[in-house]
UniProtKB/TrEMBL annotation:
Binding-site list for GTP: G17, L18, D19, S20, A21, G22, K23, S24, G64, N120, K121, K122, D123
Pfam entry (one): Arf
Annotated binding of Mg(2+), by residue: S24, T41
Highest taxon in the source lineage: Eukaryota
SMART domains: ARF (SM00177), RAB (SM00175), RAS (SM00173), SAR (SM00178)
InterPro entries in the cross-refs: P-loop_NTPase, Small_GTP-bd, Small_GTPase_ARF, Small_GTPase_ARF/SAR
Role this protein plays: May play a role in apoptosis. May act as a tumor suppressor.
Keyword presence, DNA repair: no
The name this protein goes by in its record: ADP-ribosylation factor-like protein 11
Keywords: GTP-binding, Lipoprotein, Magnesium, Metal-binding, Myristate, Nucleotide-binding
Family assignment from sequence similarity: Belongs to the small GTPase superfamily. Arf family.
Organism: Amphilophus citrinellus (Midas cichlid)
GO MF, one example: metal ion binding
């Protein structure tokens, strides 16, 4: 009788979004369970999230400042899902977020790659609900891929685990 350890699926997931959307806070919260003081990401942060005994997600948190966005495409090799984070309490930047999302989804390497939009900061007053965020980003127009939107709060830890379980399931779904 031979004992062998089952091989874990390691899935590459990229977190993108405008600066100050909460990507690094989300990554830190998922990996440590803590809220950590973050500063603007120059380059990227990376960590592995174990969803279950068979599935791990390697999460790449890529800086979102305006000067970093042209470099986003350099992080797309082997990307199996895109998690786009928006600050749902900042309506003034939704048009900028929509343009950034549209540009990155136009990259050939992301053709058919599932999209999870995290409407972060749902714990703040005057935040938009997921329908408003979805409409602002024109998510229904993305008919070439699976996509979902999830309200979350990185600071409170709300909605994060569910969102990444959904990401894992979307990756395994065949494209229609």
């Amino acid at each position: 009788m031979s004992l062998h350890t089952p091989v874990k699926d390691v899935i590459q997931v990229i977190l993108m979004g405008l600066d100050s959307a909460g990507k690094s806070t989300i990554l830190a919260r998922l990996l440590t369970g803590q809220v950590m003081e973050t500063s603007p990401t120059i380059g990227f942060n990376v960590g592995t999230l174990d969803l279950d005994k068979k599935t791990s997600l390697t999460l790449w948190d890529v800086g979102g400042q305006k000067h970093m966005r042209p470099k986003w495409r350099l992080y797309l090799d082997d990307c199996e899902a895109l998690v786009f984070v928006v600050d749902s309490s900042d309506q003034s930047r939704m048009a900028e977020a929509k343009a950034a999302l549209k540009k990155i989804l136009g990259e050939e390497k992301l053709q058919g790659v599932p999209l999870m939009v995290l409407a972060n900061k749902k714990d703040l007053p005057n935040c938009m609900n997921i329908r408003e965020v979805s409409n602002q980003l024109e998510l229904p127009s993305y008919t070439d891929r699976h996509w979902e939107i999830q309200a979350c709060s990185a600071v409170k830890g709300l909605g994060l685990q569910q969102a990444f379980i959904s990401v894992s399931k979307m990756i395994k779904k065949p494209i229609i």
